[in-house]
Each structure stands twice: as structure tokens, then as C-alpha cells.
Amino acid sequence: RTHTTFSLRNLLKCVINFFFRSKCSYVSGTSDPYVKFKIAGKEVFRSKIIHKNLNPIWDERVCLIVDNLQEPLYIKVFDYDFGLQDDFMGSAYLYLDSLELQRPLDVRLDLQDPHCPDQDLGSLELVVTLFQRSTEDRENLRLSDLHRKSQLGRGIVSIRLLEGRNLIPMDQNGLSDPYVKFKLGPLKYKSKTIPKTLNPQWREQFDLHLYDEEGGILEISVWDKDIGRRDDFIGQCQLDLSKLNREKTHKMELELEEDKGMLVLLVTLTATVAVSISDLSVNLLDDPHERQQIIKRYSPLRWFFNLKDVGIVQVKILRAEGLMAADVTGKSDPFCIAELCNNRLQTHTVYKTLNPEWNKVFTFNMKDIHSVLEITVYDEDRDRSADFLGKVAIPLLNIRNSEQKAYVLKNKELTGPTKGVIFLEADVIFNVKASLRTFVPPEQKYIEEEAKVSKQMLQQNFNRVKRCVLFLINVGSYINSCFQWESPRRSLCAFLIFVVGVWNFEIYMVPLSLLLLLAWNYFLLGKESREGSVVSVVMDVDSPI
Fold first, then answer.
1. DSSP 8-state code for residue 101
2. Is residue 484 part of a domain?
3. Number of folded domains in the chain?
4. Where would you find the membrane-spanning parts of this chain (predicted)?
5. 344 and 366: one domain?
6. Do the beta carbons of residue 88 and residue 111 sit within 8 Å?
7. Do 198 and 166 form a contact (C-beta atoms < 8 A)?
8. Are 386 and 379 in contact, with CB atoms under 8 Å apart?
9. Residues 428 and 289 reside in one and the same domain
10. Is-contact 454 411, C-beta < 8 A?
11. pTM strictly above 0.85
12. Domain boundary among 100, 125, 150
């Protein structure tokens, strides 16, 4: 017996006659709108933000699985406000039972506010198509999509963006603020911005998933960051990945078109899956048959098969609880980044919560059994860099397979706890040849954290310099008081000591004075320790039994 479900395809087009409500937009007369879709109270889609526009065009497509046509699609429009709670701009209902099967329908929905039903808030345009699917088709569609994302047919393109050379100046000061964009099929990545330089050093890594149906052309463009206006285009170049040997790191020095500079990259094209992201529902290690196949693959009997393939690491990032509130609303928008050497994967963002659930499975190819798996939690900020919430570091040798554990999040230096707990489950399956890395230097990590000024270290250095300066000032004041004869007895003693010292000075007295100072300090420290032991004995005697 099959249960009938429906697939709803939406094309979100535009909003016309938009009314703005943003607290900040009363000055500019614009809004930053985005749209949410909800079914049965659960958010199923969120559009991108169109900045400073009252007539936004999204042109986004989404496919939704619907179990009950009697449940309407609830559409809400918000205005994004940085640092504040997003403003509600209107909502509408799309009644699915009125749609015809397999017939695209142009829909125009008037936005309304339940508190102000007579106010004109604009309208929303969509193209909606309803398809009928069986439960089996639905599950196959979902699993095939998840498998396509987790099992990457042609492998992964690992790009280490090292530096740029002799870029052309785009600013009036004769410099630029360059950053790089990568595009491979539908995948897009963007590097950080290096300010005021023509020879930037990025030292960043990007892992681009390469699908079978995609072309092998990597498009690279360099831009100059400008605040308050559109970024300037510096130059571009392309890299044909089909000409690169697999499982080998290539150092590429790519000239930008029209001699506008050069980019230096390290590119590695892996034929096997080095990393993957999947949902819990398609976790291969949960299948006993698949697990046995993987264990057999790394058995001691297969020592000489593929010497580079030494094992896999799979980590399930389940959820976190009690995270730090990073936004002014008392909430956070947390996401996780998992790192193993130079491999780096990221979960989706769960918005406005301190107890997120990710339920993602990350799979890495192991290169060194002595590596450390790092899980870092960040708060997403659309207009600036993500805020650090916590971090855990787990040596692979300390992982117990299939054991779910709660880890207390720590600070960046891993010296103390922060707020929150993260729940993880990990598996490490490897061949004994992984131990050979013990005699080989560890893999160099190309992703470097930006050097930041530590307030605590700065305060410590300031206090140390302050103590030295105060000591010199006190010594100078004491010597000056002797010259001023503020205390005749002290000045007379100092004068006699000075005369006797100058009259009888020998060069051996310099190290001898240092030795006497050392003996004096030893005597004082020994006296303090003896007094402390006596006090502790007295306290032990006086304490009740």
C-alpha cells in the first residue's frame, strides 16, 4: 500500500508595490526583504536577502514535499535589520488544494498584516506547479539527492590560495584591497580581503565538490573591495581541471588577463572522496553490511593496496545546547566547521536558537592517525565575519567508535571552557599502515588564522613594562634623596659606602655581588616557605577532626 504525497515546485519571482517598514529604512526609503515559506508551522525555505530594494526580484526555485494538501503554504516577508530584530512586512497564504496537477500557475498574492488588515503592503508573485508522487518515489528522490551530495563522483578540487603578485592598483593611494572569487559549476567561494596591498598573502584553502555532470573549468576572478560603492574588477583567469593529474598537488602560477597580475595556487584533484557531507538517513556506517565492507577494506591483509588510502574518519555533529548568545536578541545563528588537517567542512546555519540541531555526518579520508579533529562553533553574521562561540579538539587516537559523547566547548586556545555543550559521535577505521606517519613530519596546515591582538597579553606586557619603569623611578628617587641630604645619616652612610667601594673596587666584585644577591634571595624565599609550613601545621592542628 502506497501513500500519496505531492511535490510542490515554486519559482519566487518578485514583489511589486512594496511598502517599507524597516526602522532604518525610514531614512533611506528602502528595505532589505527576504521571504520565508512555512508548512504546518515548520520553516521549509528561506530566500536570499535583496538589499535596498522595494521591488526585489529573487528568481529562486525550490521543491517542497507536501503530505497534506489541506495544509496551506504560509508565506512571510521580512526586512532584514543588522543588529536588530527583523521587521515583519506582510504575509499571505497559498492554498494548495486549489492547484491543478502538473500545470504551472502564475500566482499573485497580496501581502497583509493581521494587525493592519486594510493597509496595502504590496504583493508577491510566484509560479507554482504541483506534482503527485508516491512515498517510494519521494524517498528515492530524497536519498538520491543526498547520495549525490555525499558521494562525489569525480572527487574534490582542493585549492590553496597562497598569494597574488603585482596586481594593478585600483584605489587613489596606488594600492588595492583584493579578494578572490572561485566558481566551479554552481559552487561559488570567496576569499578574505587583504587591505592596501598589490602583493596579498591569503593562505586560505577551499574544497570544491566536483560532480560528473559539471565541466572542468575553474573560473577565478580578482576584485578590489570598496566600502560604500560597487567593488572594482581587477582581472580574471581560468583553469582547465581536466588537464591536471589526479592525486598530485600542482603549484599553479596563473596570469590574469591583460597582464593585470598573477595568482599563485596549490591545486589538488582527488579521484576518490576525500571528504563528504551527508544526512543521518544516508549514513553508510550505520548499515552493518556497509560497515563490514569498509572494515574489510582497511584490514591488515590489504596492506599493499593503495598505500595512500589508510583510513576514514566519520563524525556525526548532532546538536549543541546552552550556547553563548551572540546577538542583541539574546539568540545566536550557530553553524559548525569540522577540520582535519587541511580538510574543512561546514554545516548549515540554524537561525535564532541557543540549542541547534544539525544532524550532519562528515566523512574525511585519514592521512595521519596522530591528527586532531577540530570542531568549531560560530555565530553567522551576514554583514561581518562570524563570531566565535566555542571549540573542541579531539585526537583521533582518543575516539571510541560509535560512542555518543557531550563535549564542553572551550576557548580558541583550548585553555578554558566557554558556554555550551556539543554532542558528537565519531568513528575511526584505519589500516595499520597509518602508523607509518609516525616517522614522517606532519602535514603542513595551509589555512592560517588571522593574527589578532590579545587584550590579555597586551595587558600583561603593559604591566611588566610599568613595573620596570616604576622600579627605575624609585631607584632614581632614592639616589636623588641621598644627594639632597634629606636624611643626613642615610646620605653619610651612602657617601662612605661609595668612597670605600671606589677605593677598593676590583673586577671580581661584579659577579660576587650577583652571587650575594642570589644568596640573599634564597635566604628570604627559604624563610617564607618555612613560615608557610609552620602556619599550615598550626591550621591542621586547630582544625576539627
1. B
2. no
3. 3
4. 494-520
5. yes
6. no
7. yes
8. yes
9. yes
10. no
11. no
12. 150
In this predicted structure, the answer to whether residue 391 has a pLDDT above a threshold of 90 is yes
Residues 376 and 394 in one domain: yes
Contacts of 3 (CB under 8 A, 6+ apart): 134, 135
Tell me the per-residue pLDDT of 278-295, one tens digit each, with 9 for 90 and over. 555 556 666 777 777 777
Q: Looking at the structure, do residues 280 and 263 belong to the same domain, yes or no?
A: no
Which residue's C-alpha cell is 639632597? 484
Do 300 and 418 lie in one domain? The reply is: yes
509 against 213, higher pLDDT: 509
Residue 151 DSSP class? S
Conformational region of residue 456, where left means phi above 0, alpha means psi within -120 to 50, and beta covers everything else: alpha
Q: Which domain holds residue 331?
A: 275-439
**Three cell numbers written together for 52:** 535596498
- CB 81 within 8 Å of CB 31: no
Comparing CA positions, the residue from 538, 539, 535 lying closest to residue 527 is 535
- Mean pLDDT, the chain, rounded, equals 77
Q: Which residue has the higher pLDDT, 112 or 249?
A: 112
Q: For 330-367, how does the pLDDT look when each residue is reduced to its tens digit (9 = 90+)? A: 889 999 988 887 677 778 888 889 999 998 888 887 87
The answer to whether residue 483 is domain-embedded is no
For residue 80, the Cα-to-chain-centroid distance in whole angstroms is: 22
| Residues 113-157 pLDDT 10s | 888 877 878 888 888 888 776 555 555 555 444 444 444 344 667
Residue that is written with C-alpha cell 598505500 in the block: 307
Residue 393 located in a structural domain: yes
Does 308 share its domain with 263? no
The answer to the question of residue 476 being in a domain is no
DSSP code, position 283: -
Give 181: exposed, middle or buried? Use CB within 10 Å, 0-12, 13-18, 19+.
middle
Residue where a domain stops, chosen among 439, 462, 491 = 439
Q: What is the CATH number of the domain that holds 264?
A: 2.60.40.150
Please say whether the beta carbons of 365 and 377 come within 8 A.
no
- When pLDDT is cut at 50, 70 and 90, the band that residue 409 belongs to is very high
3-state SS track over 333-391 = CEEEEEEECCEEEECCCCCCCCCCEEEEEEEEECCCCCCEEEEEEEECCCCCCCEEEEE
Q: What is the pLDDT of residue 1?
A: 37
The helix or strand, by DSSP H or E, that contains position 491, with its residue range, turns out to be: helix 488-504
Q: Are residues 230 and 259 in the same domain?
A: yes
User: Are 85 and 180 in the same domain?
Assistant: no
pLDDT in the model for residue 542? 45
| 448 band by pLDDT with thresholds 50, 70 and 90 | low
Phi, psi angles (nearest 5°) of residue 285: -70, -15
Q: What is the rounded distance in angstroms from the CA atom of residue 29 to the CA atom of residue 27?
A: 6
